[in-house]
Amino acid sequence: MANANNRWGVLYCPKHSRSGSRKRWNKIESCLQEHGIDFDFVQSERQEGVSRLVNMMINNGYKTIVIVGGDSALNDAANCLMMADKETRESIALGLIPNGVMNDFAHFWGFKEGDIEQTVKWLKERRIRKIDLGCIRYVNAKGEKCHRYFLNCVNIGLISAIMNLRSQTRRLLGSRTLSFACSMALMIFQRLEYKMSLKINSDIIERKVMTVCIGNANGYGQTPNAVPYNGLLDVSVVYHPEMTQLFEGFYLLITGKFLNHHSVHPYRTGEVKVNEAVRAMVSVDGRLMKTPVGPYTITVEQEVINFLIPA
Distance between CA atoms of 109 and 228, rounded to whole angstroms? Predict the structure, then answer.
């Protein structure tokens, strides 16, 4: 891979267990060529390969790195950029062509998976906006201090467990609708509330909580008013509703009216301290992470990534 400041580095992440990956890439490749874009292309077949290939692009001097993938692949790319020194990071623009199981961050900006032509046109305009990243800081099972950045959200509790189920079932079933229905059915076997102790602004929450979403963007519909450029995080804390109200909550989530549910308590803050969340799963940008050991903190870092947005 040669050093080419004016060339794009394009990383293609095919969907797992999906047919038509080569056909989709051929369509994207043709669109890039038709728009006269010089690019070098690499493909990652495994999740672990994304970080290695993005780091290779950074080290080879690419100033435009485009991820053809979903929220998880974009998360890996953002974390790679945050490991680079500030001068290097600020010289690079990160772009996205949605191609994932979940494309929530792409949807926030108006990028559509089915409209490759429009996406490439927008990326070619090279309209850059500096965006915020959230950051979760925690201690792992080995006692090591760790951190992970996120573009979209951190989920703690039931929604994290359901998203994990949905990801697993979609890989098996292939259909987004079937995987969602199956996940909802399996939800009855999930723990519906978790003992938590949270500090948000001056509020101390010590009670059983169903789920918490800390959003830098719309958080898969749970923090619909969050934007990744105001230096703040939106937080939705959901107490355990009755079963009928639970399904009402999912309806409001799907229709974009999640905050209207009386069991949802919204906040806006620069920091969330999780002092306790007993056995609650944690996911970062839709990917399940190993549950932190002990307390952990979620903050926001303002204007740290150059992101290519629609013109």
Answer: 10
For 219, the token pair is 């958080």
As given in the structure block, the two tokens for residue 86 are 């500030």
> What gap in Å lies between CA 189 and CA 166, rounded to an integer?
14
CA-closest candidate to residue 219, choices 292, 284, 289: 284
All residues at 6 or more sequence positions from 41 whose CB lies less than 8 Å from its CB, including other chains? 10, 11, 12, 29
CB < 8 Å & 24+ apart, contacts of 26-33? 27/116, 28/68, 28/97, 28/116, 28/120, 31/116, 31/117, 31/120, 32/8, 32/120
Residue 17 has pLDDT above 60, yes or no: no
Task: With CA atoms as reference, report the closest residue to 183 among 161, 159, 158, 166.
Answer: 166
- Direct distance between the N- and C-terminal alpha carbons of the chain, in angstroms, rounded to an integer: 29
Is residue 132 packed enough to be buried (19+ CB in 10 Å), middle (13-18) or exposed (0-12)?
Answer: buried
Q: Work out whether the CA dihedral 203, 204, 210, 214 comes out positive or negative.
A: positive
Residue closest to 156 by CA, chosen among 292, 39, 40: 292
pLDDT digits (tens, 9 = 90+) for 181-230: 555 555 555 557 899 999 999 999 999 998 899 999 999 889 999 999 99
At 294, is the secondary structure helix, strand, or coil? coil
Contact criterion met (CB below 8 Å) for 186 and 170:
no
Q: How many helices (H) and strands (E) does the chain have?
A: 9, 16
pTM: 0.88
pLDDT tens for 256-275 read 556 666 788 999 999 999 99
pLDDT tens digits, one per residue of 51-62:
999 999 999 999
Pairing of strands 145-150, 128-139: antiparallel
Residue 200: which of 224, 222, 178, 233 has the closest Cα?
233
Name the CA radius of gyration of the chain, rounded.
19
